[in-house]
């Protein structure tokens, strides 16, 4: 499989997963024009998307969806409440929405959703498995628990939130209510929490992790990578060597074959 993080951060999120000849998109949080251009750079036409999986209804995950679906016949998969919201907003053409309760199959790719803690209607992350390979998409986490570690267990690749640095958030420009929301149990995950989570995830081999959904004002990529690396190192040299960290960017594609 190949994974391409097309965009990640406060301004928009979208990821392409290629499983053999099957192309699926996870979230469409940047403009349809940008998504289409990025796909074409990878040799993929929007019309060639088999499916679009939506994690939740916040704008930075769906803003390009309506226009994208005019260029693509892809089926949209999401949770029932999220789907009903997008239907009411007239974002999805009739007959193109399929709700997901647990798992679905697209060709030989199995997609499975799991709940996450975020201030949305019914937010989820996704696992994608094919021929023993596993990719996990998990952002907008808010709070960690054992179920998330089990969902990510034995993954080859995780696209995971490392949203904020507590000091930058405290000293930053956001109003108090927003700072409280971000650091709260239905907000986002700090760099330290991301590192602690990676320590707890059961691993089958070397794990590749994209540090994703970095805050525009409350984090930096060097700080996120340093903090997560320190947490891994402090919990054992072997663990530090078991995990490779990869960057993500607001509008620059990062790709990986696994």
Provide structural commentary.
There is one protein chain. The chain has ten helices and 14 strands. It is an alpha/beta fold and 258 residues long. It has a single domain, classed as Metallo-beta-lactamase, Chain A. β5 (75-78), α4 (80-88) and β6 (97-99) form a beta-alpha-beta unit. The longest helix has 14 residues, at 221-234. The mean pLDDT is 97.
The order of strands across the largest sheet is: 6-5-4-3-2-1-14
Given as residue ranges, the uncertain stretches (5+ residues, pLDDT < 50) are: none
Based on DSSP secondary structure assignment, what is the total number of beta strands?
Answer: 14
The number of domains is 1
Name the average pLDDT: 97
CATH class: Alpha Beta
| Straight-line N-to-C gap | 6 Å
Main sheet summary = 7 strands, mixed
**Measured on Cα atoms, how large is the radius of gyration?**
17 Å
**Helix count?**
10
Q: State the fourth-level CATH superfamily.
A: Ribonuclease Z/Hydroxyacylglutathione hydrolase-like
Basic shape: globular
Helical residues, percent: 25-40%
- Secondary-structure element order, N to C: EEEHEHHEHEEEEEHEHHHEHHEE
CATH topology: Metallo-beta-lactamase, Chain A
Strand coverage percent? 25-35%
Helix-strand category: alpha/beta
Task: Label the CATH architecture.
Answer: 4-Layer Sandwich
